Amino acid sequence: MYKNKIGFRAEGYAGLSTGTDKDTYSPTYTASNYKTNTNYYSGGAAIDLLFFPSKNLGVSASLANLEYYHFTYTSTYTANNTNQAHNNGDNLTFSFINNGLALSVFYVFGGK
């Protein structure tokens, strides 16, 4: 922080998501039964610019974001238990201001 007015903030984050979808049809259409599994995880880091117009009131603006995510998708037809679709992927993204400017206002309790 420069003169307790302006500075930078760095933060990390992580996420995990998993899901299952199962569709079962009447005995006439059992070949159409399927089950889908989806897994997704991500992590990244962000840098924000901070400004304190007063002692406890702050404003932040997103400057940069670095994110990695991985996903896996598997769809299985349950009537014959064969994999019909399997997909996975990785993505690495870096954005610097031009990916949308996010502003926030916050209040700090306590402090010096």
Give a structural overview.
The chain is mainly β and 112 residues long. It has one domain. It contains no helices and five strands. A hairpin with a 5-residue loop joins strand 2 and strand 3. The radius of gyration is 23 Å and the shape is elongated.
Question: Features of this protein?
Answer:
112 residues; mainly beta; 5-stranded antiparallel beta sheet; 0% helix; 69% strand
Q: Which sequence of SSEs, written as H and E, runs from N to C?
A: EEEEE
Query: What kind of assembly state do the chains in view correspond to?
Result: single chain
Shape descriptor reads elongated
Total tally of structural domains: 1
Kindly estimate the percentage of residues that lie in beta strands according to DSSP.
over 45%
Q: Please state the CA-atom Rg, rounded to the nearest Å.
A: 23 Å
What separation lies between the terminal Cα atoms? 13 Å
The number of E-state strands comes to: 5
Which class do the helix and strand fractions yield?
mainly beta
The biggest beta sheet is recorded as: 5 strands, antiparallel
- As residue ranges, the low-confidence spans are none
Instruction: Give the proportion of residues in helices.
Output: under 10%
Which whole number gives the mean pLDDT?
84
- Number of helices, counting only DSSP H or I runs of 4 residues or more: 0
Short summary:
This protein is mainly β and 112 residues long. Helices cover 0% and strands 69% of the residues. The radius of gyration is 23 Å and the shape is elongated.
